[in-house]
Design goal:
Layout (H helix, E strand, L loop, with lengths): L30 E10 L2 E11 L4 E5 L6 H8 L7 E6 L2 E2 L5 H7 L1 E3 L12 H8 L8 H5 L3 H18 L17 H13 L5 E5 L7 H18 L2 E5 L3 H7 L2 E6 L2 E6 L1 H5 L2 H8 L7
Parallel strand pairs: 3-8, 3-9, 6-7, 7-8
Antiparallel strand pairs: 1-2, 1-4, 4-5, 9-10
Helix pairs in contact: 3-6
């Protein structure tokens, strides 16, 4: 081959399948899932899931019951290890990490079914969440050295500060299991925030709430994002909440993404309408 000849190169398209808010575009996404998937036996529960979240984005993950939404949360938090694909958190690959390790890296979550320590106080539930920040040696704790009491005092002050987000500081001494359902939901969010996340995953945070509580929750989710400068991804069936606060929305059906876009895009998308309402028969 002469020096003037060039080797033949095949060019292939590289699809830009992910979208994030314009204000976050100068920095890498806080979370990026690439071709993520998981199989249970011969069943593919999630397939080729490609998704990114901007560093200060409030994003929604929606879809009919059984679409695979909570499975995606379990993959992101390593409750399940993916069969294939990559999860990057703030640019770092989470392959091989445990649930505890990805929490320490910055992912916190709530659950579809509330998982509080019901017999502990409200304050103690939040203090459990502060374990990433409250560090002292075993000897310091056993002998109750001054450093132990200083760390405990700082942790208690921080826990009360977090409870004040939802005006729950006066409930600090109440048993968590004695709280009304909506208050238990809020406490679970506070406990998640106590782990100092960069990404907060909320699994049906408005479940069981009345319209007034849901409206207040919407305001508080936006306030949490602004106050902590974090990203929030939520699964929710209340479309008023999703369309009211989410900037980007991803729609799953049978474990596959069928649409991504703004609330306006999603509301007008025929595939989304069909997934929720079913396909119209001819002549209807």
């Amino acid at each position: 081959m002469s020096r003037t000849e060039r080797p033949k190169t095949k060019l292939v398209p590289v699809p830009a399948t992910n979208i994030i808010p314009e204000r976050d575009v100068s920095l890498p996404p806080i979370l990026e899932a690439r071709h993520l998937g998981i199989d249970f036996g011969g069943l593919s529960a999630v397939s080729d899931f490609n998704f990114a979240i901007g560093r200060t984005e409030i994003a929604g993950l929606i879809g009919p019951n059984g679409a695979g939404k909570t499975t995606v949360f379990n993959l992101l938090t390593k409750v399940y290890q993916p069969t294939r694909g990559t999860i990057l958190l703030d640019g770092m690959d989470t392959a091989g990490k445990t649930t505890i390790q990805v929490n320490q890296m910055g992912i916190a979550r709530t659950f579809q079914n509330i998982r509080l320590f019901r017999d502990l106080s409200v304050l103690d539930n939040v203090l459990v969440g502060l374990h990433n920040e409250t560090k002292y040696t075993l000897g310091t704790a056993m002998f109750r050295l001054p450093q132990y009491w200083r760390k405990e005092r700082i942790a208690k002050e921080r826990a009360l500060e977090l409870l004040s987000i939802f005006d729950m500081q006066d409930m600090a001494d109440h048993k968590a299991g004695s709280l009304p359902y909506g208050a238990q939901r809020r406490l679970e969010i506070v406990r998640a925030l106590a782990t100092n996340p960069c990404l907060l995953l909320l699994d049906e945070p408005a479940a069981g709430m009345n319209p007034s509580e849901t409206s207040e929750l919407m305001d508080n989710i936006v306030r949490i994002r602004d106050m902590f400068g974090i990203a929030i991804l939520l699964i929710e069936h209340d479309m008023n909440l999703v369309m009211g606060i989410c900037e980007g929305i991803c729609v799953l059906n049978f474990g596959k993404i069928i649409a991504k876009g703004t609330p306006e895009d999603i509301q007008a998308n025929p595939a989304v309408i069909e997934a929720y309402l079913g396909k119209k028969k001819e002549g209807q």
